[in-house]
Amino acid sequence: MPLDGAPRRSAQPDGRAGLSERLGRAPRVVKTLLRVRRVALAGNPNTGKTTLFNRLTGANAKVGNYPGVTVERQEGSVQLPRSGHVELLDVPGTYSLSARSAEEQVAIQAIAGLSPIERPDAVLIVADATQLTRNLYLVLQVIETDVPVLVALNMIDMLEARGLSIDVEVLSKSLGVPVVAISSQSGKGIDALRDALDRVVADPELGRPGARWLPTSKELEADVRAVDAVLPADWHTGEAQRRHALALWALMSLDEHDELQGASRELRQTVAERRALAHKSGREIETEIIQGRYAWIDEHAAKFLREERPAGLSTTDRVDRVLLNPALGFPAFLLAMAVVFQSLFNGADPAIGAIETTFGWLQERINALLPAGIVNDFICNALIEGVGSVLVFLPQIALLFLFIGIMEDTGYMARVAVLMDRLMKMIGLHGRAFVPMLSGYACAVPAIMATRTMERRRDRMLTMMVIPLMTCSARLPVYTFFIAALFPPSMIFGFLPVQGLLMVAMYLFSTVTALICAAVLGRTLFKGPKVPFLVELPPYRMPHWPSVTRMVWQRSKLFITQAGGAILAITCGMWVLLSFPRAPEAQARADAEIAALVSIEDPAAREERAKAIESTRAGESLRASFGGKLGHAMEPLIEPLGFDWKLGVGLLGAFAAREVFISTMGLVYGIGSDATQDSPSLREKLRAEKRPNGKLVYTPLVGLSLMVFFALACQCMSTLATVYRETHSWTWPTFLFVYTGVLAWLASFAVYQIGRALGFT
Amino acid sequence: MTNLDTLSPGTRARLISVGGERAFRCRLMEMGLLPGTYLRLVRRVDVGGVLELEVRGCRLTVRRGEARNLMVEPA
User: Fold this and answer.
1) Pairing between strand A122-128 and A37-43?
2) A137 to B30: CB separation less than 8 angstroms, yes or no
3) CB under 8 Å to A235, separation ≥6 — which residues?
4) Using CB atoms and an 8 Å cut-off, which of residues 38-67 of chain B contact chain A?
5) CB contact under 8 A, A326 and B58
């Protein structure tokens, strides 16, 4: 192998070997036998890394989070002929190892094996053959860290169309590490890659780079030496090359605004000093490093990369002429979004209906099978209800991720981000936040899960905190009910229906509030260092369907296993709240009354009477429950909004799911829990309800105040459970609940009090 | 010499200097936008307020405001 740069390393002692030596021979053998080999999979975004990961690991990936950050960690096992079972760790896609945020830091931690991530036995880097020089920038950085490296040169089948040719042999010699040409899309070369990986894992020296970039100027060498001397002790075990790489990383990454972890004060100080010193003599360290690496790449690329002929107009160019066209691009985008939104809003309905029907049927069956009592009640109204309310989200989650998968895989998602950037920039976000926020109009749960498509934690958190303000479909029955019950079906100016206008106004109100909240939170709580908005527009490709379906499946599974548990637990908690303490006297009285019904001859009339008695009893029990008492206790708090305690109980019930509000109100008013938005008897009851002073409780003003409250308050346990799952902490769900609650209270207060002052009742 | 935002679609140019905040400059340069590199302004996406560039065989978009920090010489 022709080796330039540093001399090929001999079996120099590294820390681990030294430790094993001291431990003696036997433990070393045991260690080699038992320790699972780990390979990190790295690469630029859009290089087909995920497709390759799926091809190599089959269907057995474990999904989790990297410790301490909300970056998803995928791990799967690869079966290799000689090395056996090897763990493959997917490193988030990145253009460079340099980092500013804790999220970006994951890449260097996973590749160099910095705490808290274990050191990999080898790094497999996916490089896009059609954009080789830029991809080699990352390859070069990884090689510098002195881990055994194997390069998978992907999209080899696209070279021809781009008018390029690469001499893989020469590329491999230039880098000093094995290179295998593959196509992750078609599966070409995957067996050879598996084979090469097997060899590198078995003999790490094969992947030990002989070549690497080294600073060319004396000054830069001095900078690296100075930083090298103050590297934190737990970053390395003395190996010169690794220290060199980490010193370069620190010089590139650390500054006064970074959010990186584990850098000592001494290290930060030294980096700042060297940077200031360089500035004085008119140098810039970062530019020197980046330029140095690219110069190395360009010099070597001359030997293996050839531009055979200028690339013609590609399919991507032709498609983008339409999709990014000033006149046609935006309508096309609106059409695409309308399809996504309409599917979420209506397309999921049959499946949601089927789940609800099945669980309703199950409840009925079990109710009939088991004797009446607390066990029956718990199984039907807590357990089955809870499981049902978890599963009911699946159709929308699956659909949304199907669309996201297709848009990401084809490359259209990057175009969406670009088209919406101007608008989203105004509220302190960027184009990638658009699809999650739009999905929020259907349901906040899948929308919050969709924030994963954003890389930065700050953007993700900010988007998550405003999505629940969007008018989701569960608020619709509540609006419909109150608008129909309390507002006259009259026209304004003779042609504008009041009821329809109110509905539109509610949508506008929630959207504007969400945008304002995003702008305010983005400038206060989520104020972060500015990052340039650089979006790569990858060539359009056909989606790799196994990867798309796999993502749909993984997201659904994650929701059930992680958010589902919390939702089930809260449903059970709500059940306890609304059914304890029991009211045995009411039950006994109702039983006696029903027993006395035998005197009625007509079975239909008897049935109806029994139902009425049962509804009255359920209402009594609810009022006597903790929930009922809590409703009473809440009254002073919600009275300034125009709500009485019965509405308080309804709001508590709505926490399980907003649409439950109506059936809870049905219970409170003794109509039974099967009250719906179109229930005339409940409407009549509400319209007739009077306060102790004889005034009506439900006036249009109270209705408006209530709708404003519903529009803003994040009183949805499933949303909170999903935020918990995404952020791995209860801090954010708590914050979300409190801030939207306060906002809702203030807005309702303003509506009700100003309305009253203006003379409305 | 002029800034990138003034180029018309289809123009090739050589990048002269990259200005702006440190992190911004580093990110651009690491993606291959180094002084001396040739690039092509593919199109302006006015709806989104960004410019599409071709550099080192890949397509990138830059916000117009940020593009004003990039000085180029039309080739």
Assistant:
1) parallel
2) yes
3) A112, A114, A243, A246, A262
4) 43, 45-50, 52, 56-63, 66
5) no
**A105-114: burial string, b at 16+ Cβ within 10 Å, e else:** bbbbbbbbbb
Q: Is A431 on the interface with B (CB under 8 A)?
A: yes
Protein fold of A218-307: Helix Hairpins (1.10.287)
Phi first, then psi, for residue A131 (nearest 5°) are: -135, 55
SS3 A580: coil
Helix (H, G, I), strand (E, B) or coil at A164: strand
**Which CATH number goes with the domain that contains B56?**
2.30.30.90
- Using a CB–CB cutoff of 8 Å, tell me whether A222 touches chain B: no
Q: Which of A98, A133, A537 sits opposite B30 (nearest CB)?
A: A98
Largest CA distance in chain A: 107
Nearest to A716 by CA among A474, A521, A483, A516: A474
Amino acid at position A391, single letter: L
The rounded distance, in Å, linking the Cα atoms of A652 and A633 is 12
Q: d(Cα A670, Cα A618) in Å, to the nearest integer?
A: 7
**Domain residue limits, chain A:** 36-207, 218-307, 582-613
What letter would DSSP give residue A313? -
Please check whether residue A159 touches B, CB under 8 A: no
**Domain of B52?**
2-74
Strand B12-18 to A37-43 pairing: unpaired
Cα gap B24→A617, rounded to integer Å: 67
**Dist. CA A134–CA A249, nearest whole Å:** 18
**Residue A131 touches chain B, beta carbons under 8 Å:** yes
A98 — contact with chain B (CB < 8 Å)?
Answer: yes
Q: Minimal Cα distance from A537: which residue of B?
A: B59
Burial class (CB in 10 A: 0-12, 13-18, 19+), A51: buried
Q: DSSP readout, A436-452?
A: HHHHTTT-HHHHHHHGG
As a residue count, chain A comes to 761
pLDDT digit string, tens, across residues A420-462? 898 888 888 888 888 888 888 888 888 898 888 787 888 889 9
DSSP string, A109-173: HHHHT-TTSPPPSEEEEEEEGGGHHHHHHHHHHHHHTT--EEEEEE-GGGHHHHTEEE-HHHHHH
pTM (2 d.p.)? 0.82
Contacts of A330 in chain B (CB under 8 A): 47
Q: Which two tokens stand for residue A363?
A: 């409840």
Answer yes or no: are the C-beta atoms of A49 and A17 closer than 8 Å.
no
Query: What CATH class is the domain A36-207?
Result: alpha beta
Helix (H) or strand (E) holding B14: strand B12-18
CA dihedral A687, A691, A693, A694 (to 10 degrees): 20
Distance from C-alpha of A505 to C-alpha of A518, rounded to nearest angstrom: 20
pLDDT digit string (tens) for A48-91? 898 999 999 986 777 777 776 667 788 999 999 888 889 999 99
Task: Please give the ipTM for the structure prediction.
Answer: 0.96
